[in-house]
């Protein structure tokens, strides 16, 4: 994970961002699985989930959590999330860069 305080963040990605800004479908140009981030309103707290599509019909859903200012999901290991608001690029520590999917 890049540190915002040391200036070693080449993407300009931030770990503090509103989850509403990253809802939607995302694709990787590097061959990682497609993802979708959505808010589940049925729950009282209205938490956000990340859905991974590894194969057709095979989906994994994980809640997006926050600990000490770091957003992450736990899918067989912790993956940190960061987001570049200027370029609309989402970074997952385990899978690399994601770009918003065209609808």
Comma- or semicolon-separated keywords:
103 residues; mainly beta; nine-stranded antiparallel β-sheet
Write the layout of secondary structure elements.
Elements: E1 24-27, E2 34-39, E3 48-55, E4 58-63, E5 65-67, E6 70-74, E7 78-84, E8 89-92, E9 96-100
Strand content: over 45%
Overall average pLDDT: 83
Number of helices: 0
Shape: globular
Q: Which bin fits the share of residues in helices?
A: under 10%
Question: If you compute it from the alpha carbons, what radius of gyration comes out, rounded to the nearest whole angstrom?
Answer: 13 Å
Classification by helices and strands:
mainly beta
- The helix/strand order is EEEEEEEEE
Q: Can you offer a commentary on this structure?
A:
The chain has about 100 residues and is mainly β. Helix content is about 0%, strand content about 45%. The chain contains no helices and 9 strands. The chain has strands spanning about 25, 35-40, 50-55, 60-65, 65, 70-75, 80-85, 90, 95-100. It has a 9-stranded antiparallel beta sheet, with no helix packed on it. The radius of gyration is 13 Å and the shape is globular. The N and C termini lie far apart (about 30 Å). The relative contact order is 0.26.
Summarize the structure.
Helices cover 0% and strands 47% of the residues.
């Amino acid at each position: 994970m890049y540190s915002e305080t040391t200036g070693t963040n080449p993407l300009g990605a931030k770990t503090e961002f509103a989850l509403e800004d990253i809802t939607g479908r995302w694709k990787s140009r590097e061959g990682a699985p497609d993802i979708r981030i959505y808010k589940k309103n049925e729950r009282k707290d209205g938490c956000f989930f990340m859905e991974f599509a590894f194969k057709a019909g095979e989906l994994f859903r994980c809640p997006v959590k926050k600990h000490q200012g770091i957003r992450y999901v736990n899918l067989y290991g912790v993956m940190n999330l960061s987001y570049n608001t200027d370029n609309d690029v989402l970074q997952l520590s385990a899978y690399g860069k994601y770009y918003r999917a065209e609808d």
